[in-house]
Amino acid sequence: MKMYVFELGSLKLDKNLVVSMSHVARVNDPRCENEMVEFPVPAYLFETEEGYVLYDTGCHPDCMGENGRWPVEFQNQVPYEGDETTTILYQLEQLGIKPDEIKTVILSHMHNDHAGCVEYFPNAEFIVHKDEFNACIGAYAQHRYMDSYIWKDTDVWIKKKLNWKFLECGEGDYQVCPGLTILNLGPGHARGVLALKVDLEKTGTVIITSDAVYCSENYEQEREPGVIYDTVGWRRSLKYIKKVAKDSNAQVWFGHDRKQFDTLVKAQGGYYE
After folding, report:
1. What range(s) does the Metallo-beta-lactamase domain occupy (predicted)?
2. Burial class (CB in 10 A: 0-12, 13-18, 19+), 48
3. Please, which contacts does 198-205 make with residues 24 or more away whose CB atoms are closer than 8 Å?
4. pLDDT per residue as tens digits for the range 180-193
5. Which CATH superfamily is domain 2-23+35-267 in?
6. Does the pLDDT value for residue 32 go beyond 90?
7. DSSP assignment, residue 212?
């Protein structure tokens, strides 16, 4: 099995949303200012004996601008930076892979920077947590525009006949194929988060946390993220990831840690096996 790492542009947002209470006014600093930080938008492709498996899809290339898919207020809060070379379609094209060759798409969750390009993979089976899917559909039905479940993204793919497979709370982890196991984390950062355990012959085991763990501060210091749906669920997920990592002697790759991500080999330069 080969694993390719894609960098699909970047986002900027308030540091308090990444690590809760990062910037708090105090007596000796009563005018403490917030800080915008930049982090990568990743996705991962696996070339397996059973076909291509994609983990997350990034932001839609038309998300920004006056007529962009994201509301202007949302663009101001979480601006995306990227170009034609940072789209999922371009990255796949560089490897000679067409979108309709993707057999399986695993969505860690359905927020704007993870499920923005669902529409491009008509032949794939989409694996997602059932509660997360329902939350996305609920946001669509209620026309909740200022939401991480982007209404215009959903509006496009909901009209297509896509093949969905749902994982539910309590049913445990799920093996996609030999070497690829979904860690069914349930609620935490979002309504239902799916991390991924990857067993590679040469590299060893890697756990890709997605937004279950944004960055090293969330993991090592156990500091909660600012964007969180279920605090108790998030701590349960963190504990489980740490247990699996210890039991399997795994590397842990965080969802949006710029320092760590810059050390990874990107698809244009090679792959992991």
Report:
1. 40-256
2. middle
3. 198/3, 198/46, 199/248, 200/1, 200/3, 200/272, 200/273, 201/1, 201/273, 202/272, 202/273, 203/3, 203/251, 203/272, 203/273, 204/249, 204/250, 204/251, 205/248, 205/249, 205/250, 205/251
4. 999 999 999 999 99
5. Ribonuclease Z/Hydroxyacylglutathione hydrolase-like (3.60.15.10)
6. no
7. G
In this structure, are residues 81 and 10 in contact, taking their beta carbons and an 8 Å threshold? yes
**In the β-sheet with 251-253, what is the strand arrangement from edge to edge?**
174-177, 180-186, 193-200, 204-208, 251-253
Tokens of 232: 């108790």
Does the pLDDT of residue 27 top 90, yes or no?
Answer: no
* Cα gap 262→175, rounded to integer Å: 29
Q: Going by DSSP bridges, is the β-strand pair 80-81/102-106 parallel, antiparallel, or unpaired? A: unpaired
- Which residue ranges make up each domain of the chain? 2-23+35-267
33 Cβ neighbours under 8 A, 6+ residues apart: 23
**What is the DSSP-derived secondary structure letter of residue 101?**
G
**Given the DSSP bridges, would you call strands 193-200 and 180-186 parallel, antiparallel or unpaired?**
antiparallel
Query: What distance, in Å, lies between the first and last C-alpha atoms of the chain?
Result: 6
Outline where the chain has alpha helix (H).
15-18, 72-77, 88-94, 130-141, 151-157, 216-220, 231-248, 258-261
196-213 pLDDT, tens per residue?
A: 999 999 999 999 999 999
Radius of gyration (Cα) for the chain, nearest Å? 18
Determine the average pLDDT of the residues in 28-39.
83
Spell out a b/e string for 194-214, using b for 16 or more CB atoms within 10 Å of the CB, else e: bbbbbebeeeebbbbbbbbbb
